[in-house]
Amino acid sequence: MRKELALGMMRLPVGADKKIDYNATNTLVDYFLENGFRKFDTAEVYHNTESEHAIRECIVKRYARDSFEIADKLSSWRIAADGSAEQFFQKQLEVTGVGYFDRYLFHSMEERLYPEAVEKRYFDFIFEKKAKGLVREAGFSFHGKPELLEKVLTEYPEVDFVQLQINYIDWDNPAVRAGECYEIARKHRKKILIMEPVKGGLLANLPEEGVSMLKTVSPEASIASWAIRFAAGLEGVDTVLSGISTMEQMQDNVALMKDFQPLSDEESRTLARLREFLHRNPQVECTACGYCQPECPVKLPIPGFIRLLNNTRIFGDTPQLINGYKMNVHTPDECIKCGACSKVCPQHLDIPLHLASLARWAKGK
Ligand code: SF4
Ligand code: SF4
Fold first, then answer.
1. CB 3.0 to 4.6 Å from 24: which of 13, 237, 312, 340, for a disulfide?
2. Average pLDDT of the chain?
């Protein structure tokens, strides 16, 4: 059985100057297309706005338009105060040179962005582009709570698909509730695309004991392949997106999806044991509700810091987590322990205590 794979153009190979390496990207694109896959996913923000240019140089200029499909996104927070969705969209068409988008998504829908999306009629904007043939399928990528997903799908039943972040570790994570989101999308009979099946690479970098649990059952399979097979094996999943950086990852992904084998019962049981093992260290039960955030006088990204702390307890010191930590403008030791955040936390978390714990982890990194 074959499964659809989309190449996410957000972690392309880069050179020493951190710019996209177009030759290496061409090689990945060629291999992907030669093996019968045709979907690519980009956004204006990816690779510091270089990804859409890579779409044009590595795909549009080198292949016939009917041999590939491009998904792009309306990133509402990137629309200039004096700009419009129309200008943003026209620029995307111009930069990519695609002529039309096979899929166009409202980018990263979540509680904070929804009121503005309604007020500025962004979904209607996308539907109008679809009616004019400039977009073939309309959808949105989603990072919010299941309640919001239910609301969006009820209020905008015209959307063709929804792109969800689903992976085996976040399936019942209270801060993500991936399983609930999946069920809601199924209930609304929407096409489901899955992003971040390997959780930004974290599920390819398991602690040693986790690796040996998987290798005992399947010595040849890559660690990342378990995560991809979990996601792609869910019923009703149309496409799995993978942010591929190397030829080794490309070959692994292509081989997996070309001749897709769902997880066997034994493999599913192994994954359940692995999940239990990865959660052996207690997690901070933050639901990422965000109530604490506006209360903080130092403007610390509290839910993001707690998510990072939980990830360090699951995965240890991985390069992804250390790099992610370094991208923050603030550090957890800036907390002045005023307690304003904890007063409003519905989970009654001792937030300063958890930030101190993260600060200990971050020391010297
Ligand atoms: S205790 Fe720390 S994190 Fe909480 S509001 Fe005060 S400064 Fe911000
Ligand atoms: S208020 Fe509590 S549960 Fe909500 S995001 Fe903040 S720490 Fe997490």
1. 13
2. 94
CB of residue 263 inside a 6 A radius of ligand 2: no
Q: For the segment 152-205, what is each residue's pLDDT rounded down to a tens digit?
A: 999 999 999 999 999 999 898 887 899 999 999 999 999 999 998 998 888 998
* Domain edges within the chain: 4-273, 293-362
Query: Separation of 3 CA from ligand 1 center, angstroms?
Result: 46
pTM above 0.85, yes or no: yes
CATH architecture of the region 4-273: Alpha-Beta Barrel (3.20)
Q: Say how far apart CA 250 and CA 254 lie, in whole Å.
A: 6
The confidence band for 248, taking pLDDT boundaries of 50, 70 and 90, is very high
Question: Separation of 343 CA from ligand 1 center, angstroms?
Answer: 10
What would the pLDDT profile of 255-299 be if each residue is shown by its tens digit?
Answer: 999 999 999 999 999 999 999 998 888 889 887 888 899 899 999
Task: Say which ligand is closest to the CA of 291.
Answer: 2
- 347-351-353-354 Cα dihedral, nearest 10 degrees: 90
Pocket test for ligand 2, best of 293, 305, 347, 350 (most atoms within 8 A of CB): 347
Q: Give yes or no for residue 306 CB within 6 A of ligand 2.
A: yes
Measured in Å, residue 202 CA sits from the centre of ligand 1 at 28
Q: Work out the pLDDT band at 354, boundaries 50, 70, 90.
A: very high
Nearest CA to ligand 2 atom 1: 345
Q: Residue 288: CB within 6 Å of ligand 2?
A: yes
Which residue has its alpha carbon closest to ligand 2 atom 2? Answer: 345
